[in-house]
Design brief:
By secondary structure, this protein is mainly beta. The chain folds into two domains: about 1-35, no CATH class; about 45-160, no CATH class. It has helices at about 45-55, 60-70, and strands at about 1-5, 15-20, 30-35, 75, 85-90, 105-115, 120-125, 135-140, 155-160. α1 packs antiparallel against α2. The protein is globular and about 45 Å long.
Length: about 170
């Protein structure tokens, strides 16, 4: 078995490990394991981004978003390097963010360019079929890289989309 490590100068937080072996009958192409050394996602990140979205004029239901976040329980903090999280909000505890329907999904999207060359920060607000907040996706460069510890957004956002089902 051969083991090789490649350190990339263009993105120093990523370690790429290539492991392959002819003896194990693996295909010619190596199996790729990727480990990212980035600041772990925390409840503080979830709170920061929720408050940021709620404060934006582009988001028409800021008070409902905050109420759902404060009454809900964060059930998952993504560990891939993004700042996304899932949350469960009890039925009837607060007014839903969107009209209940057959399925949940995205009800709001907000995207910014950053001061980093080609950098973007994207937010997607998700609801469940009951209309309650189900999570917020926070991705850097379409989730190609971890969200940087410090990020400067360029105003105004270059993409805003609000679903017609968003309760206003």
């Amino acid at each position: 078995m051969r083991l090789a490590a490649l350190w990339t100068d263009s993105y120093p937080v990523a370690k790429f490990w290539f492991i392959w072996s002819d003896k194990l009958g693996l295909p010619e192409y190596p199996t790729v394991y990727i480990t990212l050394n980035c600041m772990p996602n925390t409840f503080a990140h979830a709170s920061k981004w929720t408050h940021f979205l709620a404060s934006r004029a582009e988001f028409p239901a800021g008070e409902r978003l905050l109420a759902a976040f404060h009454i809900g329980k964060v059930t998952r903090l993504c560990e891939c390097g993004c700042n996304s999280f899932d949350i469960e909000v009890p039925d009837g505890a607060v007014a839903p963010l969107a009209q209940p329907g057959d399925s949940g999904g995205s009800v709001f999207e907000l995207e910014f360019r950053t001061t980093e060359e080609q950098g973007t920060l994207e937010f997607i607000v998700l609801v469940g079929s009951n209309g309650h907040l189900a999570g917020i996706e926070v991705d850097y460069c379409a989730n190609s890289y971890p969200v940087p510890d410090e990020i400067i957004l360029m105003e105004p956002p270059y993409h805003v989309r609000a679903s017609a089902s968003l309760a206003i």
